[in-house]
Amino acid sequence: MRSRPLYGRLVPRQGSSHFIVADGEGGEAVAALLTAAPDLKSTTHIVYIPGTNGTDLTTMVAGLGAQVFHAAPSYASASQRIRKVLGDAHMGLQLYAAGTEGLIGQVQRDAIAAGLPHDALQTEQRGSLARRVQCVHCKGITENVTLDPFVCSHCGLNLFVRDHYSRRLAAFQGVCIDAEDPGEVPASEERFK
Amino acid sequence: MSLDDAFKDPFFRDESFFGDYTYRNTPHAVNRFPFPFPEDDYMYSVNMEPHVSGRPGSIFEHCFDVDEHYVSEMRDRARVLEQDPLRCQSLPHMTLAGWDLLELIMEKFSEDYPQWFSLTKDGNKWHWINRPLGIDQKFTFLDESTLPMGPFEYITRQAQGDFTLQDQRDDNLWIEAGMVTSQADWSLDFDIGMNFHEWHAPVPLAHEMGIFDRALKFLLALQHGAPVRRFNWTMTVDPLLDTSPENYHKWGPSKTTMTPETIGKRQHLRVELQTLIRLPRSNAIVFPIRCYLISLDDLVTKPKWARRFHRVIKTVPDELATYKGFIRNKPMILDYLAKYDDGAPTSPGWWPED
Question: What is the ipTM of this complex?
Fold first, then answer.
């Protein structure tokens, strides 16, 4: 899909400070990064969020020895902190995001909004392929969508996930699947595990 | 904006694109309809040509075509914007491009249709009169505080067709403003901020054919004063301009209620005349997407169009018919059109009588 971003591997870069946001299995990518470049630890700030699929590496990531470690229950709960750090960024800040596509997309969106160049962010996708999906009808975003079709958590329409991704919204597009034949909804499949 | 006096000029039809659907084409409008198929089959192509003045009376005569549906289309736009203000958005850095577009439309309208529009300038003090819509506006060019809304929204509430503005940077085009109330199922609110390949992502087949790579390369080199145009097309049940994804759950069911008895009146060929114009100050590209609708009953009054349209629909791949949203009614459309195709050869080009 042309609008979907490509993800890489986190590699250590020279910088005055390092800000890492990760969720779920993304914690393993953080561990790999700091193991490869232990000298980063003294200038690193980590925000870690357990995965909604149950993967919780909080204890492991907390033990990596970063200068600042913050455990957050959800992206929404951490977003004020993340935006503040991005807004305060000085030249030389290195930014990393690892974990689900939904998390990476939100960090990218917030980084762009803070005026950071889009290539200032390194990304690594790990773990669940669950998607953030915006309902094109009511504009509400449903987090951690694994089924297709699924029910919009805001307006209740039956949505299929179109292969179309917005970086500005950090979300895929959900479109009503039974618009032409209300009630005729195919069985959901687990497409984004 | 007052529409009260608008229909005093009998040229403009008082009609609706919603609810009771009183939209019709007069014989004059049918004669000049932009039938988009120069050959008997259809496949994607970049198909761009210079947007130069064409045959007098045709939709190509002027840079912007103002036709008999103008006033009613502007009323429909106002209705859609009232329901959903997100259909007009402009990122903050696009204001200058909005002024570029305002200037272009005011100048072209007043030059090409002096009976309806006038623009007088005293330095930056401008005076704009739009008689069909009953607008008389004095303002200072490039001073936003002197207009009732931003320049982009102000002028695109007075011009038929959807408009998007593309900023050019990093060897790409970024869709960063739009007035979108008569779209063929795409969402400005979702796509705003995307680059050229991103916003075309859902289109099938064309990426693999290299269509978008070639089109982008071509557009990045677009020069001021040398606009280009192309056609696109789809099918719409009832003359509904606002076939938005936002409202798809409301208009989608209309596709299931067409019958062989009503198809001639209800099924419309929807043609977009897409033009691309480089703007002088901002270096942005404006993309007007002008929508023309014709019922099958009106289309088949031109024997050449009837024969050719039957052949085009017959050869459209199912993947494309699905994307364009008429796969479920394709058999019924073909049954209707087959009656008008005697197998006779057609002449090249799209003009009905050539």
Answer: 0.88
